[in-house]
Write a structure and sequence with these properties.
The complex is a heterodimer of chains A (482) and B (452). Chain A has 482 residues and is mainly α. Helices cover 65% and strands 1% of the residues of chain A. The model of chain A has no long low-confidence stretch (mean pLDDT 89). The relative contact order of chain B is 0.11. Classes of the chains: A mainly alpha (482), B alpha/beta (452).
């Protein structure tokens, strides 16, 4: 453990986040929405706090960071980010309670998109921009951003990277981790720019287009409109956002390879094929379930089914319809989508397609072994054998996910939420989706959740975003033992 | 620069580590998933699981854009085939191969452009023999590095607790200026380039820059034994041992070589003129005593088994041998072994790493030698006319913190610099530097920034 390095890097992170408030500050100055002073004040406060932390822990080398340090920096860094994100909400008076502001902010950074705001549109534009920006920064990862920017992290960067993006299989695009981080951010920025352009071309205002894009690409789901995407009632916007939600749910290294001109990368990647087919199957099932019972025309049923399924399976959480009023089969399918999530290496949450595939293959292998007790078998993915320790770590992950899910849902129901709301609120937060069912459904919000429940959900969001191990390790007594 | 390394054994691992610390794009190929995992966890390089002799694998590693291939597996055949494939796939790539079989080395033609096109063959054993011979020339030193064809030496001396230098400030050495310069101090795991105010402590490994012709005078000064090496016992007649014995056969020294294997002894005895070949176990106390171990200047333990080497050296020390040189291959053992009282350690892996790194850095920098402790290097470089460092008194040159000019070579003249010394264009410089500032130093050595 190197407490000094940990403290110093978190200081640096806070400083970065402070500097990133320049964008919302600019927006509020342009719109003269009256929140400029609040954002400016937050910015000065955050920057100086970050700088102070950085300088206070000055001295000592940063050359070596162990895996333990990486875990601490990432988890504590994200908690700090939640605090920083809450400052503008509190100072501008948009949210009066600290718990609510922290919930909103961490829900932003973890790209959950669960909101406690009931009237979003009355917020000043600067604050709305900040709310979207937290999602955009959190999507590709604030730590990955620091790795891309800070030159001196070196191998320490690798430890941080692994703690923030715990994909089952390490996927390095470039030999050096800082180059990998830079490449990922470049791809992310490029796709973001493309979506803004397409939304503006369809007639959305630049501000709304930017806000929506900042929440689509990280699969976040905050919208500056009360009715989310349903506000526009436009098939064009629905289509564009569906397309980009799908892109965000796909592994970013595939995008990188596509941009390098490698041709049909999506079709060749086994995980991507499974992911896209799952989306297709769910859309078809939901379409036929709601055709006739909710929507009279097949086309309309398809349009709403496609949007809702894509939004939930990529764990974005935008809505164009109140799916809480759909038949229970559709609602069940949507909850299943929450659980499945996007691809590994995407900005989406959930279990991730790759883990599901490997678990299924492993389970099949066990059955196969009963039939052929002497067969020598391996679990393969894309023609490559997957080592046994990766499989067992995925099983561990799965069990932890379930365990935490069960315990959190128990706490939520003990706090007085009805069964559907208790379960779906935990699912929506731990899988970083946002809207759940029942009292936390798509047209509701999280404001009425009891104080204690909000903190449970905050914890769930963080666990979900950092994929459990990174956070849970830190609360183990074994971690602190020398 | 994009560099592909085949083989993630100790040699490949350490080269990859060094190069990645210098921000090169390194691809490391190995067949062992366990090694690949260890590398992904510890190094900032791209580790690829596969065989270095598979064309498919080399293609995936992007050999077309790579500038250099280092084949550093334990197998000569694998290394040479990797080079052969590399040449076929990218004619411009520079190829460095580690080759252990000395027979291959003799046939230089075989590997030149026609057959395999290997640019540099590194044979760790012969590098190690060279190191051992150098150490014998300076008894009392723990490490010796040659520069400018051996005219300048960098000598590492371990300061014993009873040494008069322990606890003294560098500034307090009068009369040393212009003759000897303390270039680097290794203290435990740390290496630093000292200032005048720094103090030497006991157990430090101090690196001195000395002119070779001055060497005898400085011995007295540093309390080093100035006796010529006369009697040597080499234990182990493997590749290294026999190569060393052959080399020493031509000198005036009284050399004995010991081995357990009767066949090896017989074969060696046929080849050697003066060296006495003895068949016996190096760990046998009475045998060593029989061969007068007490009067020996150097005992060189180079058997294939490193644990035995350590024991033999300790035994010999106990029986009165003045100095021992021990071969230890595992790099992680080296600091430990020094702690239990073994003077000097050589390692074929460390030798291979040194040799390969020297070749890689070639160009502006003429040669490089990593110092013990690994985070510092001595480099030999030419001062270019366009560089910021020429024609200014050294005291005014803005050298990065952690770098120091150890010697200036101007034609036949060798200057151990002082603050008022001036570097002229075309001078060859020996610079000691910690690895961190190496990129800055390289920049400084090349061009003035405002030159363009």
């Amino acid at each position: 453990m190197h407490p000094r390095s940990i403290f110093r890097l978190i200081g640096l992170l806070v400083l970065f986040l402070g500097l990133s408030m320049a964008l919302p500050l600019l927006v509020s100055l342009v719109y003269k929405d009256g929140s400029a002073w609040a954002i400016g004040y937050s910015m000065v406060f955050t920057c100086s706090a970050g700088l102070l932390m950085f300088l206070a822990a000055y001295g000592g080398g940063l050359s070596y960071l162990s895996h333990r340090d990486g875990v601490a920096i990432v988890t504590l860094g994200w908690l700090a980010a939640g605090g920083v994100g809450a400052i503008p909400f509190l100072i501008s008076g948009s949210i009066s309670q600290f718990t609510d502001a922290y919930f909103e902010s961490l829900s932003g950074f973890t790209t959950t998109g669960a909101s406690i705001l009931s009237d979003i549109e009355k917020l000043p534009q600067g604050i709305l921009m900040w709310r979207s920006l937290t999602q955009w920064l959190g999507g590709m990862g604030i730590i990955v951003l620091s790795i891309a920017i800070l030159p001196f992290l070196g191998i320490g960067g690798m430890q941080l990277y692994k703690a923030e993006i715990p994909s089952p299989v390490v996927d390095k695009l470039k030999p050096r981790i800082s180059d990998t981080a830079k490449t990922l951010w470049k791809v992310y920025i490029l796709i973001t720019a493309l979506e803004v352009a397409l939304l503006v071309a369809g007639g959305m205002s630049l501000f709304d287009a930017a806000c929506h894009t900042f929440c689509t690409m990280p699969t976040g789901g905050f919208s500056p409109k009360n009715a989310s995407i349903a506000h526009y009632q436009s098939p064009y916007f629905d289509a564009v956002i569906i397309a980009f939600m799908l892109l965000a749910g796909i592994n970013f290294s595939l995008h990188y390879r596509l941009l390098r001109g490698e041709g049909n990368v999506f079709g060749k990647d086994p995980e991507c094929r499974v992911f896209l087919s799952m989306v297709g199957i769910f859309i078809v099932l939901v379409t036929f379930d709601i055709y006739g019972s909710v929507y009279a025309s097949l086309l309309e049923a398809f349009r709403y089914a496609a949007f809702q399924v894509t939004s939930i399976i990529t764990t974005t959480g935008f809505v164009t319809a109140d799916y809480d009023r759909w038949p229970s089969f559709s609602r069940y399918l949507l909850v299943l989508c929450m659980f499945l999530g996007g691809m590994a290496g995407s900005t989406g949450g959930g279990m991730k397609t790759m883990r599901i595939m490997l678990l299924a293959k492993h389970a099949y292998q066990e059955i196969f072994r009963i039939i052929h007790p002497h067969a020598v078998t391996t679990v393969k993915l894309g023609g490559r054998a997957v080592p046994g320790d990766i499989l067992s770590s995925i099983w561990g992950f799965f069990v932890l996910y379930l365990g935490i899910f069960v315990i959190s849902a128990m706490i939520m129901s003990s706090l007085g939420l009805d069964l559907v709301s208790a379960f779906s609120s935990v699912a929506a937060c731990i899988f970083n989706v946002g809207p759940g069912l029942g009292s936390v459904g798509p047209v509701q919000n999280y404001l009425q959740v009891p104080f204690m429940g909000k903190w449970v959900l905050i914890f769930c969001m963080l666990l979900g975003r950092l994929e459990i191990y990174t956070v849970i390790v830190l609360i183990m007594p074994e971690y602190w033992r020398k | 620069m994009k560099i592909i390394i085949v083989g993630a054994g100790e040699v490949g691992y350490h080269i990859a580590q060094k190069l990645s610390e210098e921000n090169q794009d390194v691809f490391l190929i190995d067949k062992d998933p366990e090694k690949i995992r260890r590398i992904t966890e510890n190094l900032d390089v791209q580790a690829l699981l596969g065989s270095g002799t598979s064309p498919e694998m080399l293609k995936t590693s992007g050999i077309k854009e790579a500038e250099m291939l280092v084949a550093a597996t334990d197998s000569d055949e694998v290394n040479l085939i990797a080079c052969l494939l590399a040449r076929n796939m990218n004619p411009y790539i520079v190829k460095v191969a580690r080759v252990r079989n000395r027979e291959y080395l003799k046939e230089k033609e075989l590997f030149s452009q026609d057959l395999l096109g290997v640019d540099q063959i590194i044979n760790p054993e012969s590098v190690m023999v060279e190191t051992i011979r150098n150490l014998m020339m300076v008894p009392g030193a723990s490490d010796v590095v040659d520069f400018v064809e051996g005219r300048v030496k960098l000598i590492g001396i371990t300061i014993k607790p009873d040494s008069p230098f322990a606890g003294r400030q560098l500034l307090s050495f009068k009369g040393m200026e212009g003759k000897v310069l303390v270039g680097a101090i290794v203290r435990g795991e740390q290496v630093f380039i000292p200032h005048g105010e720094d103090t030497i402590r006991s157990n430090d490994l101090v690196y001195l820059v000395v002119r070779s012709d001055e060497l005898p005078h400085e011995f007295g000064f540093f309390n080093l034994e100035n006796s010529e090496t006369r009697r040597v016992i080499v234990v182990g007649a493997g590749e290294t041992g026999s190569a060393l014995a052959s080399a020493l056969d031509e000198t005036k020294m009284n050399v004995k070589i010991l081995d357990k294997d009767a066949h090896k002894c017989a074969a060696l005895a046929e080849k050697l003129e003066k060296v006495i070949v003895i068949h016996g176990d190096g760990t046998d106390k009475s045998l060593l005593q029989e061969e007068n171990i007490g009067d020996v200047d150097f005992l060189v333990a180079v058997t294939g088994d490193e644990e035995s080497n350590v024991l033999i050296s300790l035994l010999a020390k106990g029986l009165g041998a003045k100095k021992t040189i021990t071969r230890v291959n595992k790099l992680s053992y080296i600091p430990l072994v020094s702690a239990i009282g073994i003077d000097t350690v050589v390692s074929s892996r460390l030798s291979a790493i040194r040799a390969i790194l020297q070749y890689i850095r070639r160009g502006r920098i003429i040669s490089v030698a990593p110092l013990k402790g690994e985070h510092a290097e001595a480099i030999e470089a030419e001062a270019l006319e366009t560089s910021d460092i020429v024609n200014v008194p050294l005291a005014k040159v803005k050298f990065p913190k952690g770098a120091l000019v150890g010697a200036i070579v101007r034609g036949d003249e060798i200057i151990i610099p002082r603050g008022d010394s001036v570097i002229k264009p075309k001078d060859r410089l020996i610079i000691l530097t910690v690895q961190k500032v190496l990129p800055k130093l390289e920049k400084l050595l090349t061009v003035k920034l405002d030159y363009f």
